[in-house]
Every structure is written in structure tokens, then in C-alpha cells.
Design goal:
229 residues, elongated, mainly alpha
Length: 229
């Protein structure tokens, strides 16, 4: 296999950068996988640095800025991710200056509020558990996660329905009750229940479905003559 020249290696590096920004470590690893001579890699990295095509300081700043507006990861997740990409421990010390605790809290709060909309209708306990797991996976400090969850309104305000909406809901409930009544009437009648026993069994079955007690009694009273036959 012909040795890859400096010019060819440079072309390969620029093409690799055309997809997205890279750290120095990522670029070196990429070029080594292409079996390029170490001396040529060093020359290419020097030239990329001169052109500012690769700059880990700028990479870190852009990463933090993108995270603030797109990913909303916590500092722990960011630190792990950047280490995997080859950002040095020394450079990572500046992460807290670029991404302050206030910034992190705002991101954490934003993620919590966004997820609460998805969790609408669940109990407070369920919301707390899912928020805790979600924010933990996204790399936020435990103390911050607990503080943010505590600050959120987890109980949902009951929504008042309009008269038309109330009438519609009552109609739906009545129609559903009628269907279940007919179903249990057939089922218990087939088993030989009649009269008061039949009424009792239907009432028990409807109560098990969660219908209001008063509504069940109203329905059975309207059907009393039919059930007594």
C-alpha cells in the first residue's frame, strides 16, 4: 500500500472536519486509524492548528454554548462526554467558568418543566420518581435535582369544564353506564339471578366499574319494574 502523503493526509483531515467539529484527540485517532505516519500526523495537526481548524479551547466553548440551548445536559454528563472526546483534564477545569451553577440550575429547571408536561395526569409520586431518574441520567448533581423537583408544582389544578363540556361528559358517562348495565343484566340473568338478587348483583358489578353510587341507584330505580318481572 502506497504511503499517504502529507497533502493527502491534510485532505483527509479537512474532509473529516467537514461533517462536524473535532477535538485534537479525535483527529489524531482518526488519522492513526488510516495508518498515516506519526510525523505526517504531527505536521497535519500543526497546520490545522495554524488555520484554527482545530482548537480545543474553542471546541469546549462551542460545546457548552450548544448544550445551553440544545441538549441541556448537567455538568457531570458534560464532563464525561468531553473526556471521551479527548478534552484534557486541565482544560476541563474551565468548564465551571463556562457553565456556572446558575446556568446549570436553569437548564435543569427547563428539563424538569418540559418533562412535567409529558407526565401530565400521573400522580405526584410518579412524577417525582420519573423526574429524578431523568435528571440523574442527564448528569445533574443529586442535590440540584432534589432542589429543582421540590420547586416544581407537581399537583395539577382541577380544570373547570364549561356547561357544554359538562353536558357532553355526563352524556358519555350515561351511555357507558347503559352499555355496562345491559351487559351485566344479560350476564347475571343467564346465571339465573332474578328480582332483588339480580338488582343486587348488577349494582355490585357497576360499583366495581367505578360509577357514582347515586347514578347507579338512579339507573336501577328506573329499571325496577323490568327487574322485578
Amino acid at each position: 500500500m502506497a504511503e499517504i502523503t502529507r497533502e493527502k493526509a491534510m485532505d483527509m483531515a479537512v474532509k473529516y472536519l467537514s461533517f462536524k467539529s473535532r477535538t485534537s484527540s479525535e483527529m489524531i485517532e482518526y488519522l492513526k486509524k488510516k495508518n498515516i505516519d506519526d510525523k505526517i500526523i504531527a505536521d497535519v495537526m500543526e497546520k490545522l492548528g495554524e488555520y484554527r481548524y482545530i482548537d480545543d479551547v474553542v471546541y469546549l466553548k462551542n460545546y457548552v454554548e450548544n448544550n445551553r440551548h440544545l441538549n441541556y445536559y448537567g455538568s457531570r454528563r458534560m464532563n464525561q462526554d468531553l473526556k471521551k472526546r479527548g478534552i484534557s483534564d486541565e482544560l476541563l477545569l474551565s468548564l465551571e467558568d463556562l457553565f456556572s451553577k446558575d446556568d446549570e440550575y436553569q437548564c435543569c429547571e427547563m428539563v424538569a418543566k418540559k418533562n412535567l408536561r409529558v407526565l401530565k395526569g400521573q400522580t405526584s409520586a410518579q412524577k417525582k420518581k420519573k423526574l429524578y431518574d431523568k435528571l440523574g441520567r442527564m448528569g445533574y448533581p443529586t442535590e440540584m435535582v432534589l432542589e429543582v423537583i421540590k420547586s416544581q408544582v407537581l399537583e395539577e389544578e382541577p380544570q373547570e369544564l364549561s356547561e357544554d363540556e359538562l353536558a357532553y361528559e355526563e352524556q358519555k358517562l350515561s351511555e357507558k353506564l347503559n352499555r355496562d348495565y345491559e351487559k351485566y343484566l344479560r350476564a347475571h340473568s343467564r346465571k339465573g339471578a332474578v328480582g332483588k338478587e339480580l338488582m343486587f348483583k348488577i349494582k355490585k358489578s357497576l360499583m366495581g366499574r367505578g360509577y357514582p353510587y347515586a347514578l347507579i341507584n338512579e339507573k336501577l330505580e328506573a329499571k325496577r319494574e323490568e327487574l322485578d318481572e
